[in-house]
Amino acid sequence: MKLTNCLTIIIAALLISCSGSGDDDPNVSPTPTPTPTPTATLKESANFPIGNIVSANRLSGTDTYFRTLLNKEFNSITAENDMKMGAMFVGPDTYDFSKGDAIVNYAKANGLRVHGHALVWHASIPNWLKNYAGTDAEFEAQVKGYIKTTVAHFAAIKTTEGKSVLESWDVVNEHFTNDAAAAVFNTRIGSDYVSKCFTWAREADADVKLFYNDYNLGSTGSKAAQVVDMVNTFKTNLTPIDGIGMQMHIDLEYPDLTTLSNNVTMLKNTGLLIHFSELDMSVNKDKSLTTLTASRANAQKEKYKQVAILYKTIPEAQRFGITFWGMRDTDSWLINFLNNPNEWPLLFDSNYNYKQAFIGFLDGLNN
Ligand code: G3I
User: Whole-angstrom Cα distance, residue 18 to residue 161?
Assistant: First the structure.
């Protein structure tokens, strides 16, 4: 092989391996060689929205292929990070909605739905609020002001038919946790802070759908039951809530389909909307692989198919949609979180090629 060819291959490999988060994308404009070739798009195969995550940077950057694929396959978007408290609530009574605005306006221009994520999450509290020196009452007033201002702000961005582009918010994310960072809301607002956040959001917008979002809701732990208890309490004390987000960060074995299905049943029996809100599927938890083998790819294909089939067991009126937590494998948060570059959790490979996982999910939708 000629030296120049070698160099080209090495540079191309480096570009792919360094791509990391979609925010840092180099000028990716690949000519995909779709193997296998899907026979339909995701969004036309489902009677509920199919979403993916975005960042403002990626919606305006040079990676035009991302946007082409997004618009082709998906009809709902969620900000991976740009619409979290840490990104928007920059100081007391001070907000930066610029990236959120860019995302919602992109959705408006392209006929997509926006699911807002996430108003209150202990992992995204801005430092100034974490270390807030004011009284508890002042702390609560800040959080209340933030929720009301943010919800009202995005509700005002309308389609030409006069409907809000942003349909829904994860109002509180991951309340059921032992993470010490979460205690600040309990400590400073009180044990009813979750209920208060939902009430403030509803006061700001009578129509927006309000979700509680959490992980491990499909597993054997007690979380799903805790969420059901919370929803029942909300119903009793008339706290507004419209839906439950099951994050669905799953892997090939966990949770098994029976447990997952039982938990979906438990949650759908609340009568609320159900959102599979952050779907991805780790395939190399044991770090035994350095390339995605055909057998592991097929196992992922089959489980994605079963996830789509399972979602369709939810009554139509309760299907809020399925949102994937990333486009290409190399975009996934799991690569950092699991500290493993050899992880392939999503529907597209690093070059935006369709994976067997995509075909499996599509088969499940069309099943
Ligand atoms: O933007 C900065 C960059 O300027 C800086 O150089 C770099 C150095 O670490 O950090 C960058 O910020 C990172 C950000 O992602 C953007 O890439 C943060 O450190 C990192 O913590 C952040 O991680 C996000 C994580 O939530 C925490 O907010 C992940 O992208 C995002 O996928 C993840 O999503 C969460 C959901 O919101 C809630 N459910 C769980 C899910 C996975 O953790």
Answer: 42
